[in-house]
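REQUEST
  id: r-88c1
  op: predict_structure
  target: SUEL-type lectin domain-containing protein
  payload:
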Amino acid sequence: MDASHSRRRGYISLLVISYSYVFGLASNLNISNDARGSKIEITNSRSSSTDYGTDMGKQYIMCTESNLQDPWVLSCKTSKDVVTRINFADYGNPSGKCEHYRHGNCGAKATMDVVKKNCLGKHKCVIIDNDEMFGASHCNKDIKFIVQYTCTKE
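RESPONSE
  id: r-88c1
  status: 200
  body:
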């Protein structure tokens, strides 16, 4: 084997390693769309409190409330299940318990649309829960972000 052949193999190996690094990094990014449709990169996401609602066989209901401090993760129980319906979403002052939520009087109007756009048809989605993502909530204090959704077993 001559030196030019060895060099060529070295360049190819370096190219493969570079592409692997770039595509591996890209697969770890979470991108969500805000109320204006702008894409937002989200890193270091953590879950908030999650309750399990009614299990209807092939489908089940999940309810989650964000702590408004970290990017928020909405996910189904297993990686094969997907979010097929957003039953309730409010960023403001919602009240109630899982499967019995009520909208408050100061919620952001774009909340349901943003959650649907980012989560429907996926196993997991990540959302930043703030005024930039949903638009102004017009609440003075005690802002909550609650979502009730249906997952379908695949």
